[in-house]
Amino acid sequence: MADFRRNNRFKGNGGAFKGPRLNRNNDRHDGHRELGRQQGGECFTLRIEKMVQGGEGMARLEDGRVCFVAGALPDELCKVRLTFQKKDFTKGRVVEVIEPSPDRVKPLCPLYGKCGGCSLQHLASEKQAEYLEKVERENFRRLAHAELPEDFVIHTGNAWGYRNRARVVFRGGCGGNSGGDAVSLNREGSANCARFGFRGEESNNIIPFENCPVLTDALNEFLRGPAATLISDGLAGGSKNAGGRDDSRRLPRELDVNIFDNGKGEVSFYYPGMRKSDFDAHAISVVEIAGRKIEADASVFFQSNLGLLPELVEAVRKAVDEGLASGKATNDWLIDLFSGVGFFACILQDKFKKITTVEREEGCLKHAKVNLSVPAATTAISATARNASEILAASCVSEIENVSAPAEDWLLENVVDMPATLIVDPPRTGLPKEALSAIVKSSVNRLIYVSCDPVTLARDYAKFAEAGFSLSHAEGFAFYPQTPHLEMMFVLDR
Fold first, then answer.
1. In which element (H, E) is residue 492 found?
2. In this structure, how many other beta carbons lie within 10 angstroms of the beta carbon of residue 238?
3. How far is CA 492 from CA 150, 158, 424, in A?
4. Which of 97, 6, 2, 32 is nearest to 360 (CA)?
5. What is the mean pLDDT of the chain?
6. What is the mean pLDDT of residues 239-268?
7. What is the band of 40 on the pLDDT scale with cuts at 50, 70, 90?
8. Given 2.40.50.140, 3.90.1170.10, 3.60.15.10, 3.40.50.720, which CATH number is that of 23-104?
9. DSSP 8-state secondary structure symbol assigned to residue 247
10. How many Å apart are CA 79 and CA 186, to the nearest integer?
11. What one-character-per-residue DSSP string does 46-95 give?
């Protein structure tokens, strides 16, 4: 995903960084047997066969059941403690590595295994893309009954200090909490007691941290510096009340805060319940990518690796150009589904006579209107402008339509009767079946599919293949080093 989107529809890791709980299990109520690490589950010595989706190692117990092992690498011999059992499979965690892989390294972060994020730190950074490629090639054989192209490549960038967006937990206030859920918070004293943390692995526990090695320097400095004061001031009201005393409210003891570094060290932030004046002052950001200024705010999603994002942009632009040159797609109409704030449409604006962006989250609509109101040529020569909304110019395309609606609803209500250029960038759930069916029935002959979940991409590709589409090109993007997450771009033709 390369675009802003409301956080309740997070992508890929994609959604906001929570010290992410990558494989949280919510099935404990259904009779499955959970063997917590503190309860001392049964131990086995297992040979790890391969890595699977999610970054776990796969082994087999003597009774034939598969065991998914956190922290294990292929070919290793490990002592494994079971943490979860079901009739046909189990889960476990490495207790001891008896025969380590040559690709195993010591995790850099002291919170590895406690914080829920960066679960591949035990695998050498330079080897992670190679392992992920093997996983995805097998996924597509198994799920889509197809082979990824020979020239499939995974783009990589910096292994550390790359992450420009995160969701952290702010814990402010001093002293006890009689209610357990809220504290009486005002400006004085609260910032000095504030702590920031991530959610723990497979739990809601807060893991405090002083420095996160995957966050950008700007984000770490912001959290160590002004963040606590700015947030405490905002929560307390930032002004005197009618009686002349500091305003005070009953507030959650823990607060999720989205932070975003726009690539120039300028940090924006957002938290639920933020006052409009604080939102206007602190939440809005502008990112410069491919000569365009993209405006959004920290309450919506944006790609978390700005260093690698230009390579995805280039791949999409190349796919669009090839489609136009081949005649399989036309420049009469670009349709950008799940468009967020119109990122891809904005980048491609100079190529099309008509552009339609479709995104269900209304909060993204105002940004899409701003970003697509500015012609590409104008943005390129307006380096002194503070943000895109300050440039008052007519668009260079004949028609721009920004629609706030579910993609499947828009497709069902609108007839696409020409070989329009189509880009889809859905959340991790993939394309709704109604949307996929409508695309198949349309006159679209070339589709660019950007995915944050290879499993749902494989599922959707199998359905497109049944309808006559073929995979002409595929690329991967390791936007989240130290994690098993991978984004992919497919070009489908018929």
1. strand 487-493
2. 15
3. 16, 30, 11
4. 6
5. 85
6. 71
7. low
8. 2.40.50.140
9. P
10. 51
11. EE--EE-TTS-EEEE-TTS-EEEEET--TT-EEEEEEEEE-SSEEEEEEE
Q: Which amino acid is at 269?
A: F
Q: How far is CA 61 from CA 82, 87, 96, 205, 354, in A?
A: 11, 12, 17, 31, 58
Rounded average pLDDT over 271-298: 94
CB atoms within 10 A of CB 179: 10
What number of other Cβ atoms are within 10 A of residue 470's Cβ? 12
Cα of 9 vs its chain's centroid, Å: 10
SS3 at position 335? strand
The mean-pLDDT minimum among 13-17, 62-66, 400-404 falls in 13-17
Do 358 and 338 touch, CB atoms closer than 8 A? yes
Q: Which architecture does CATH list for 309-493?
A: 3-Layer(aba) Sandwich (3.40)
Strand ranges (E), 241-317: 249-252, 254-261, 267-270, 284-289, 292-297
Quickly tell me which residue has 């405490």 as its tokens: 232
For residue 350, the model assigns a pLDDT of: 93
Instruction: Give, to the nearest 10 degrees, the angle between helix 217-224 and helix 227-236.
Output: 60
Distance CA(195)–CA(124), nearest Å, equals: 31
- Tell me the two tokens of residue 360: 């269900």
115-129, 165-179, 235-249: range with lowest mean pLDDT: 235-249
Closest CA to 479 of 301, 319, 284, 338: 301
Give CA–CA dist 476/273, Å, rounded.
Answer: 37
The residue type found at 118 is C
- Give dist(CA 12, CA 19) in Å, integer: 14
Read off the tokens for 454: 């290879």
Tell me the C-alpha distance between 142 and 20, whole Å.
Answer: 27
- Domain spans, the chain: 23-104, 165-297, 309-493
Q: What is the CA radius of gyration of the chain?
A: 24
Other beta carbons within 10 Å of 20: 24
DSSP-based three-state secondary structure for 240: strand
Q: How far is CA 183 from the centre of its chain?
A: 32
Is 295:367 a contact under the CB 8 Å cutoff?
Answer: yes
Is residue 90 within 8 A of residue 66, CB to CB? The reply is: yes
